[in-house]
Specification:
- The protein is of the alpha+beta class.
- The protein has one domain.
- The protein is 41% helix and 17% strand.
- The chain has a six-stranded antiparallel β-sheet.
- The longest helix is centred in the last third of the chain and has 54 residues.
């Protein structure tokens, strides 16, 4: 479904010729350092109707981790599950809600895999429901001096993992309480946001935080990649045009000299 939606996700530009999947993958592997951090991880995110019972949510960014390799970003078992697509770079940020009672880390893993590998991993996660397993939760980024300072592995409450197929990226979130309390019944965002869910992640809205932030960062990543791709193609087209004009000018000059 994600692969089929690619034409709509780079989208919105009305172009009859969307960028090729090869171009998209190539640009995605550079966009993490070419796009301003405020575009990739906005200072604030608004979730209209994204909270429990349809309440509005507002999340504020409180920390951005230095870009890094994937070492330490995932528990060993999740790292093993993601290993087939490789790791080029991992970028992360942590947000808190309007009341500073919940914290959520969001990460964008840029892979080294091609479309075939990303589709295979996506299919495996769906078929085996790996994104619902509590032993495959991502790790949080606990920034010192912030509301997330006590956000460790034992505080993880809800999470979401999205394996993209139209770009070499894995986007994930993991949420918990800002007061550092341990969570004994973690639940995936998909389960925690179902009607009638009674777990603490569900009732506290931590599942909503994990889902809402993941959706917004994914949408922002796609917009940034779309703009970056269009800009790069426009630049390449301009350079090609200038080169062509220069060649024609040179050819005309040589022709005149030969005639004279």
């Amino acid at each position: 479904m994600l692969g089929g939606a690619a034409a709509g996700s780079w989208l919105g530009d009305g172009s009859d010729t969307p960028p090729s999947i090869a171009d998209t993958y190539a640009h995605a592997r550079t966009v993490w350092y070419s796009v301003p951090v405020d575009d990739l991880f906005p200072r604030t995110l608004r979730g209209k109707g994204e909270g429990p019972g349809g309440a509005d949510r507002l999340w504020t960014r409180i920390a951005v981790a230095p870009d890094s390799s994937c070492g330490g970003g995932f528990d060993p078992l999740l790292a093993k599950a993601l290993a087939p697509v490789g790791c080029k770079r991992l970028v992360r940020a942590t947000y808190t809600d309007a009341t500073s009672t919940s914290v959520t880390t969001v990460g964008v893993l840029i892979t080294t895999s091609g479309p075939t590998g990303m589709r295979a991993l996506h299919q495996r996660f769906v078929a085996e429901k790996l994104d619902e397993r509590s032993d495959l939760m991502p790790r949080p980024y606990a920034a010192k001096g912030t509301a997330a300072a006590g956000f460790g592995d034992e505080q993880r409450a809800s999470w979401r993992i999205r394996i993209l197929t139209d770009a070499p990226a894995v986007i994930y979130t993991v949420s918990g309480f800002a007061d550092g309390r341990k969570v004994t019944d973690p639940q995936s965002a998909g389960e925690a946001t179902q009607r009638g869910a009674t777990s603490s992640p569900a009732q506290s809205g931590l599942g909503n935080d994990a889902r809402g932030i993941a959706d917004r960062i994914e949408a922002g990543f796609r917009r940034a990649l779309s703009i970056f791709t269009e800009s790069s193609e426009s630049s390449e087209s301009s350079e090609s045009s200038e080169s062509s004009e220069s060649s024609e000018s040179t050819g005309s000059s040589e022709s005149t000299e030969t005639t004279s």
